[in-house]
Structure formats: C-alpha cells, structure tokens
Amino acid sequence: MIDCGEGTQMRFARLGLSMKRIGHIFISHAHGDHCLGLPGLICTMSLLGRTFDLHIHGPKELEPFLQSALHLFCPNLEFHVVFHAVDTTQHQLIHEERSMEVWSLPLRHRVPCCGFLFREKPGQRHICRDIIDMYEIPVSQINNIKAGMDWTLPDGTLIPNERLTTPPSPTRSFAYCSDTAPQPGLADLVRGVDLLFHEATFGKGDEMRARQTFHSTTEEAARVALEAQVGQLCIGHYSARIENEAQMLAEAQQIFPNTILAEEGKRISI
User: Fold this and answer.
1) How many domains does the chain have?
2) Are residues 50 and 77 in the same domain?
C-alpha cells in the first residue's frame, strides 16, 4: 500500500478491498493527506485479529507521530509495527522480496519527501515441455534447467539451455511520484517504467502557484513521462480548485499522449 490519508478505511470498504493482507505500507511524506489514516487503519487491523507484523516505510520525521499515535490509540496490539526510516535524499533499495524490489525516489517538496519505484525481478525461463520429453530429462532437473543449466545426453552431446527453454516473461515496473516540484534527474530514475504516477496538482497557467507550494503542473508531469519514455502516465493529486479534470488530461496529452487520469477505484493493468 502507498500512502494512507484520512478515509482510507472507508474507501477500502466501499471498493470491497481487504486490509488483512497488507504487509507493507510506503509513506511518501508527513503531510496529513498522506499519513493521517495510519492510526485508524492499524487499530482496525488489530480489531480484525491481525497477528503478523506490519512494516511501514517512510521519512524519519514520520516515526514520532506514528509512535505517539500507537501509544495513545493502540496500546495493546497483538502484532509489531516495524518502522523503516527512508533517506528521502537518496535513490536506494529500501525493500526486497523474492519477486520484487522497492527503490526510493528523491522528490522536492516542502517537507522531506520521496517517491517509490516498484520493480519486478526477472523470472525463470520457461520450459519447452516437448523438448524436455524428447530428451527424457528427469523431472528432478527441471528447476536447474529453468535457472539456465544446459543438459548433456548419455553420448556426451550438449543440449544448450536456449533449446530447452524460452525467455522469461517481461518484468513490470511502477513508479509513484507525489508530491513534488520538478526534480532534476527524476526522469533518469524512472526511465522505461511501464506505469508512472506523477502528481499534477495544477494546470497550465498556474506555474507560479505550483512553485510556491512545491507541486507540479500537468505539463511538467507529462515532460517527465516523455523524457523517461515510460509506457503510460497517470496524473493525479489535483488541487481542490480544479473543476475541469478533462482539461488537465488534455494538457498532459498534448505532450505525452498515453496519459490517463487517476480516479478513485480505478484499476490499471500493468
């Protein structure tokens, strides 16, 4: 889960989503619309009988708030809330699992802030079942062949792995960038991702307001996507003063055509 603003639990319920399986929450910065939902969410997890650890990754400035809230509202949790401080000035690996890595993305905002890059690890090669059967390769060797091993026949003939397998499925990646003013070098860090979420708080013509609040405009978000050659751009985090989101979309699409609007409940396949 990424960020946890007020009303998160209600949105989970409205969308029919379960919070029981959440293992890691990534918080971009300590502004209320990105973290004030944490205490309530954690208390509800406890009421639902959660027993396994919950890991929260975010700027070190978030930890005092989190510890105070847990002490006041959730003093008898049956699980551990493990806080992992993220250096928001560095692009570095902050979490790794068997099939995925999570990297921090330094951003420019009024408080320490970072985005997150989720990158799938390459999988194993796919077995060519008919070739495996033809050479009568034992089942016990399938995993080794998936990992890249060649096979030698009893007469000494070497069967290269490229004949026994096909390449693994392409990896997928997603970058989340909110909130931020234009950040030099960001495009290099998210280059080629399948999906980029980039905040677009303001539209064209509101550049001065964007600079004052350390946010981005539609055009600035689109330029990052264009420079980084991403697969798709999703813009969101609109200012409350925005009345015409279609205009925001049109402004971004003039620069990066494959842009969509973030909408509550929207599902995007990567």
Assistant:
1) 3
2) yes
Catalytic residue among 3, 33, 179, 206: 33
Residues 54 and 95 in one domain: no
Q: Which residues contact 11 (CB under 8 A, 6 or more apart)?
A: 264
Instruction: Encode pLDDT of 81-116 as tens digits.
Output: 999 999 999 999 999 999 999 999 999 999 999 999
The dihedral built from the CA positions of residue 189, 191, 195 and 199, taken in this order, carries a sign that is positive
The CA-atom distances, in angstroms, between 233 and each of 83, 230, 245 are 30, 7, 15
> What pLDDT band is residue 213 in, cutting at 50, 70 and 90?
very high
Q: What is the pLDDT of residues 30-57, one digit of tens each?
A: 999 999 999 999 999 999 999 999 999 9
Q: Give the pLDDT band (50/70/90) at residue 248.
A: very high
Q: Is 133 a catalytic residue?
A: no
Model confidence, pTM: 0.90
The parent domain of residue 21 ranges over 1-86
Q: Note whether 176 and 198 are same-domain residues.
A: yes
Does one domain contain both 93 and 204? yes
Parallel, antiparallel, or unpaired: how do β-strands 232-236 and 195-199 relate? parallel
On whether both 100 and 60 belong to a single domain, the answer is no
Predicted pLDDT at 109: 97
Provide the CB-side half-sphere exposure for 21 (13 A, CA): 3
Picking from 188, 245, 192, the residue whose alpha carbon sits closest to that of residue 218 is 245
113 and 70 share one domain: no
The whole-angstrom separation of Cα 90 and Cα 231 is 25
